[in-house]
Write a structure and sequence with these properties.
About 55% of the residues lie in helices and about 15% in strands. With about 325 residues, it is an alpha+beta fold. The protein folds into 2 domains: about 30-155; about 165-300, Chitinase A, domain 3, CATH 3.10.50.40. The strands form 2 sheets. Strands 4-3-6-5 form a 4-stranded antiparallel sheet, with helices on both faces. It has a 3-stranded antiparallel sheet with strand order 2-1-7. Helix 3 crosses helix 4, helix 4 (about 65-85) crosses helix 7 (about 130-150) and helix 8 (about 160-165) packs across helix 12 (about 280-305). The chain starts with a helix and ends with a strand.
Length: about 325
């Protein structure tokens, strides 16, 4: 036996056979599962996306295999559609390093991570490459830039109305909401009740964050639908009325928006007293209102273009 494996030619032959078998095993494992136009999604893409989503939202880890697969599949299909559309306007999916670093910092800060070095160690535990995340960030940034270029002239801001909202709160308590959202669509209003009940049942069984990952079409579904603290003053009357009728931990009824039906959950409420800087507060409210309208246009535009894509599950 020692003489057999001591022969260089035989050792080389065994090495070639081993490489051949390894490559074939790899090919068997990495199957093409979905095609979005000419873009493919493989089994390795799905596994990588599951790891990425769990890294952002650990609750997903508690879901069964089928639910994890569907969340990852829908996330990747959405990403591929955006990528293909973006490439109609730019030659390459690429953004400045400074911008990607700022967004990465926002991402890992939300996870309670203090530095990029710590973040690199964190994602290594999930077998995720930083270049993969940068590519995802780049797609989202370029998508947002595309939406701004297409719809910024359609943004309507009533500055006088916003000023009046601010002035009525001067030196008084300002209520702030910490919210999470689920944005969903239905084919027709007759399906609304059934879809709403399905989502509520899922929240009871799996929790809000996992349900957002499964059902929400909003981009923040990856992080359980979480939103930042929002001043009551920037919310429209319909949303304010819904929130005023529920308590912390409760859900609103479905709220009709241009992008779909919106469910909001109150995570926390706080009130603060402060002397308001009118110009600063107005700037914040204008930015928030602009972003809200752009998000609505983003969902509308995505829903529109996605109808023109051919999606094949193989």
């Amino acid at each position: 036996m020692m003489m057999l494996f001591g022969n260089k030619k035989i050792r080389f032959f065994i090495f070639i056979i081993f490489c051949f078998l390894s490559c074939n095993l790899y090919a068997l494992e990495n199957k093409i599962l979905i095609k979005v136009n000419n873009e493919i999604i493989t089994s390795l893409d799905i596994n990588s996306e599951i790891n990425y989503l769990i890294a952002l939202n650990k609750n997903i880890e508690n879901l069964d295999k089928e639910k994890k697969y569907n969340i990852a599949k829908n996330s990747l299909i959405r990403e591929r559609i955006k990528k293909i559309e973006i490439l109609n306007y730019v030659k390459k999916i690429e953004i400045e390093e400074k911008i990607s670093d700022e967004i990465l910092k926002s991402t890992y800060s939300r996870l309670g991570i203090n530095s990029k070095a710590e973040f690199l160690m964190y994602i290594k535990n999930y077998n995720i490459n930083i270049n993969t995340i940068v590519k995802k960030v780049s797609i989202e940034v370029l998508w947002n830039q595309l939406i701004v270029s297409k719809f910024s002239d359609k943004i309507k801001i009533n500055k006088d109305q916003l000023k009046n909202k601010i002035l009525t709160k001067d030196n008084k308590e300002i209520k702030r909401y910490l919210l999470s959202e689920i944005l969903f669509n239905v084919s027709n209003n007759n399906e609304l009740k059934a879809k709403h009940n399905k989502i509520k049942a899922s929240i009871e069984e799996l929790g809000f964050e996992n349900t957002a990952a499964i059902y929400s079409i909003s981009d923040n579904s990856k992080i359980g639908g979480k939103l930042d603290w929002i001043n009551e003053g920037i919310l429209n009357e319909k949303i304010r009325n819904e929130l005023n009728n529920i308590n912390i931990g409760d859900l609103t009824n479905p709220i009709i928006t241009p992008g779909g039906f919106l469910l909001l959950k109150i995570e926390d409420i706080k009130s603060i007293k402060k002397k308001i800087d009118l110009n600063k507060e107005l700037e914040i409210m204008i930015n928030n209102e602009s972003n809200k309208q752009l998000n609505q246009y983003s969902n509308i535009y995505f829903n529109k273009i996605s109808k023109n894509f051919q999606i094949d599950e193989l």
